[in-house]
Specification:
The chain is α+β, with helices and mostly antiparallel strands. It contains four helices and seven strands; from the N terminus they run βααβββαβαββ. A seven-stranded mixed beta sheet has the order 1-2-3-4-5-7-6, sandwiched between helices. Strand 6 and strand 7 form a beta hairpin. The relative contact order is 0.15.
């Protein structure tokens, strides 16, 4: 099947919510354990589209199977920085979809003036950490007991990518 990576669109909201919910319910990769109600997700997607956010989706055979986004910080001195979020449905992992989503999103974020991109990943999520390293993210630290699922604590790896003018700072 053909994989399509493109900007998110308003009609994607229900499928985006379903994909987000699928990854969240794994209780391993995202800070949330279920997606917000559809009305909230629709409002979020509408705002993303309206603001031309760096938010992309992956579609295989017309089915939304992953997403990636970088949202800039709201404070003036931090508007060059953004936070990364992404996920790929379990049954579509290991096909390079995450890397394609990540690269498209980072390119768009750079065009929008987001020169520092940060993320936190669960320390035992080695597949994701290797992906982030491959595209240039560096480790900035560890948040000890930064995440908690079902009463169990997990360290969170903090990583950042400097791009554009920030890469020479």
């Amino acid at each position: 099947m053909t994989l399509l990576i493109r900007k998110i669109q308003r009609p994607d909201a229900p499928a985006f919510r379903a994909c987000l919910d699928s990854v969240a319910r794994e209780r391993k990769y995202l800070a949330q354990v279920e997606a917000l109600p559809l009305e909230r997700v629709e409002a979020f997607v509408s705002q993303s589209v309206e603001n031309d956010a760096a938010q992309f989706v992956a579609l295989e055979g017309g089915e939304l199977v992953g997403w990636c986004d970088v949202f800039p910080h709201w404070a003036y001195a931090l508007q060059h920085a953004g936070s990364l979020g992404m996920g790929v449905r379990e049954d579509f992992r290991g096909r390079g979809i995450g890397e394609r989503l990540l690269r498209a999103t980072l390119d768009d974020a750079l065009r929008k003036g987001i020169y520092r991109v940060t993320l936190e990943a669960r320390a035992d999520n080695l597949r994701a950490i290797r992906l982030y390293e491959r595209v240039g993210f560096i480790h900035e630290g560890v948040a000890r007991a930064g995440l908690r699922f079902d009463g169990r604590f997990h360290d969170a790896v903090r990583m950042a990518l400097l791009q554009g003018p920030a890469s020479t700072a």
